[in-house]
Amino acid sequence: MNLFRLAGDMTHLVSVVVLLLKIHTIKSCAGVSLKTQELYALVFAARYLDLFVHFVSLYNTVMKLVFLASSFTIVWYMRRHKIVRRTYDKEHDTFRHHFIVLPCLVLGLLLNEKFTFREVMWAFSIYLEAVAILPQLVLLQRTRNIDNLTAQYVFFLGAYRVLYIFNWIYRYFTEPHFVHWISWIAGIVQTLLYGDFFYYYILSWKNNVKLELPA
Amino acid sequence: NSGSNLKDEL
Hints:
The complex is a heterodimer. The N and C termini of chain A lie far apart (40 Å). Chain A has nine helices and no strands. The model of chain A has no long low-confidence stretch (mean pLDDT 96). In chain A, helix 2 (34-47) runs antiparallel to helix 3 and helix 4 (98-110) crosses helix 5 (117-131). In chain A, 69% of the residues lie in helices and 0% in strands. By secondary structure, chain B is low in regular secondary structure. Chains A and B meet through helix 1 and helix 3 of A and loops of B. Chain A: Keywords: Endoplasmic reticulum, ER-Golgi transport, Membrane, Protein transport, Receptor, Transmembrane, Transmembrane helix, Transport. Chain A: Belongs to the ERD2 family. Chain A: The chain crosses the membrane at residues 55-78, 99-115, 121-140, 152-170, 182-202. Chain A: It is a multi-pass membrane protein. Chain A: It holds the Pfam family ER_lumen_recept.
């Protein structure tokens, strides 16, 4: 495992910890999109179907379990926890997330590395992950006061995607036959979606002012 | 089996 990959996984982990910290300790999910969180829970459920079939390493198994458990925990908090759910900004979290699941499933059926159940679900999860951040970005645009933890959550999530691209470039040059169009193209699309956010995040950080995204 | 070594990523 190269350093980019490890750093990517760690920023992904940090993003989840930041979000859980906000929800669990402050008992607030203000500014967090439930739609995005539900999509991530679906992404991990579809991708990690191989958890008990295909063993890679202890690291891999533990990380998969962490991402599965944390994504479903966050959804549970936002939907069921009696204090947290009251802080959910339902009025502004209006992205029609169900409508992007079906196209991703169709795409997974058409474009996959092998037409088997697990490979189709894997491709589906890759396509869905690429667009899963959209409801969150839309909600941020509509949020007047974006708190630091929410902004940091999205920043670390975006950093994870950028680092994965560096990881692929590194692997392309160091491993023979390492060509994976599906995850590369989907991964680049996913990273580009963060472009605008990164621009305004860095600007607010440089000028030491609160983050605000133009609508 | 082109995808095998990719499935080691999260």
